[in-house]
Design brief:
The complex is a heterodimer of chains A (234) and B (311). Chain A is an alpha+beta fold. Chain A has 5 helices and 5 strands. The termini of chain B are far apart. The chains are: A alpha+beta (234), B mainly alpha (311).
Chain lengths: 234, 311
């Protein structure tokens, strides 16, 4: 921490104090190493060690290894079907009998960090709504979001849907001129459910599921438009 | 032969011990950690203050994220926000938290406010991890290590108040090299290097960062990006170069940042790389947090020289 031209100040701490501090630093760095190396493809040993340090790491928010959802994607993207931006739409008939659609995130939120928060919420909802991967969690966020929006509008029922915005392949972009780019933008409903409010109870009745990706060889894991399931709503 | 092996291990242990002691326990000036306090304080005040705009909409009794409904997604970590029920309680505690963060950033009663700032920030994060991103773990470790550091000794109201009482004593107090300043800065350095290494390795676990298409899949996310770079589809080689440069930089940062000669170059390149990622991902706070964390690699002497107008 001193620049090369400066003489180093003498060590101030006693040997005992240094030993104790070294022990604490070593334990902390070991826990950190476990947290970092567990993030991508953990072995059974790494997972057990992570469980051991989990109370410490989670309390201080030092681990990005997901509890059930990868909130911090340090890989940025792997072009998986869930590495896209989602939106959550709630369709309802308000007290004035007008049909209204509320979207999360709303457009034009300022400052930008608010947009980032709501986008993160929509992305978490979209990622978790894959029922096969997240059996226990798929309905949690749609229920919470739709319930709050319905209550705020005085409505007792509505429709909640999660929409994925799939991304165009580079080759597809190159094939069309700039004026025809719009059709390449492709949205797909990954989750759709009826919502009913009765007193303090919010019930979800799932309607359909369109994110059934056929195992196509090379583009199987790409974040492009998946093939819709037969009979699925476009 | 056995004697040689024994001697080697004796020398190895002695050398490691001396190096470890020099690395962690050589006292240093508090200028670096104080500058980091100022930077991370501004970020955390921004994050907390902007949460005010959606406080009740998100965490209120009829908000989008009721505690009871999202509990299974929280991971069981403590947040005092989980115990607040009415909008009035939420606002009172939130504003008190904002006051703590402002005091911490300004460097007033820093020993206490640094710990309280960590509690405030972690409570925000643990209340709803699904609205956080990669920024929060970086800010969390910076705040954690600043709890250890004498980060109020410079660029702070603590110093200003001390100077009012006795200027000579205050100058000696703030210029005193301290072991805790070194430990905190070293912890930030090691943690940052590990994190950037993690980014590189987790990217390389996916095909697109090998095939050069990683940046393309980020650029096309219209909802997230700040600047539209989709016209780069005409230049696939440029996209591939950008992708590879990011991974290469991250690998270089994690390893070569420990070489003093390479450090200034990597820190400057870091500004470019984190900045370019911010434009594409729209995550400005993440880029800002990485830049602030990188300050741990700048020596206190450089900060002091900067403040005196000479680098």
């Amino acid at each position: 921490m001193t620049s090369p031209s400066e003489p180093s100040p003498p060590i101030a701490w006693s040997s005992e104090a240094r030993s104790l501090a070294s022990l604490l630093i070593f334990i902390h760095l070991f826990a950190l190493l476990v947290a970092v190396t567990t993030y991508t493809r953990p072995s059974e040993l790494q997972l057990r060690l992570h469980d051991l340090f989990s109370p410490y790491l989670r309390t201080l928010h030092l681990t990005a290894y997901p509890v059930n959802y990868p909130f911090a994607r340090y890989h940025l993207t792997h072009a998986l079907p869930t590495d896209v931006d989602y939106s959550v739409q709630v369709e309802l008939t308000g007290a004035d009998k007008q049909v209204e659609t509320v979207t999360v995130p709303a457009a034009g939120l300022q400052p930008l960090v608010r947009q980032r928060r709501y986008q993160a919420l929509a992305n978490a909802t979209g990622t978790l709504s894959d029922e096969e991967a997240n059996e226990d969690f798929s309905g949690l966020l749609p229920r919470a979001i739709a319930g709050a929006i319905l209550k705020s509008r005085g409505a007792t029922q509505g429709l909640v849907r999660c929409r994925a915005h799939y991304l165009p392949e580079l080759e597809a972009m190159a094939e069309v001129d700039a004026g025809r780019r719009e059709p390449l933008e492709n949205f797909s409903n990954t989750y759709e459910a009826q919502v009913f409010i009765s007193g303090n109870t919010i019930e979800l009745l799932k309607k359909s599921r369109t994110l059934d990706v056929a195992p196509v060889e090379s583009s199987r894991n790409r974040a492009t438009t998946p093939q819709p399931a037969p009979g699925a709503r476009p | 032969m056995i004697a040689r092996v024994t001697e080697y291990f004796s020398r190895l242990a002695a050398g490691f011990g001396q190096g470890w002691t020099r690395f962690w326990f050589t006292p240093s000036d508090a200028a670096t950690v104080s500058a980091i306090r100022l930077g991370v304080g501004l970020i955390v005040v921004y994050l907390h203050a902007t949460l005010s705009l959606d406080l009740v909409a998100l965490f209120g009794p009829d908000g989008l994220l009721p505690v009871a409904d999202i509990e299974p997604l929280e991971g069981g970590a403590f947040s005092y926000l989980n115990y607040l029920r009415t909008p009035g309680e939420l606002w009172a505690v939130h504003l008190a938290g904002l006051a703590v963060l402002v005091l911490f950033t300004a460097g007033l009663w820093t020993r206490i406010t640094s710990v309280l700032a960590l509690v405030v920030f972690l409570s925000d994060v643990h209340r709803a991890p699904m609205i956080t991103g990669p920024t929060e773990p970086v800010v969390a470790f910076l705040l954690l290590y600043l709890c250890v550091a004498p980060c109020g000794r410079r660029y702070s109201l603590d110093r200003l108040l001390a100077r009012r009482a006795n200027a000579t004593q205050a100058d000696a107090w703030s210029a005193q090299p301290l072991t805790t300043a070194t430990i905190a800065a070293r912890l930030i350095q090691v943690h940052l290097a590990l994190l950037v290494g993690l980014m590189a390795f987790s990217q390389l676990a996916g095909d697109v960062w090998w095939t050069g298409m990683g940046m393309w899949w980020l650029i096309t996310r219209q909802e997230s990006r700040l600047v539209d770079f989709s016209w780069l589809y005409q230049y696939p080689l440029l996209l591939a170069a950008w992708t590879h440069m990011i991974v290469l930089f991250e690998l270089a940062f994690a390893t070569l940042i420990w070489v003093p000669l390479a450090r200034p170059l990597l820190l400057a390149l870091g500004m470019v790389v984190w900045g370019s990622l911010a434009l594409v991902t729209g995550d400005l706070p993440f880029a800002a947090a990485l830049v602030v964390a990188s300050l741990a690699f700048v020596s206190p002497a450089t900060f002091l020289a900067c403040c005196r107008g000479r680098v």
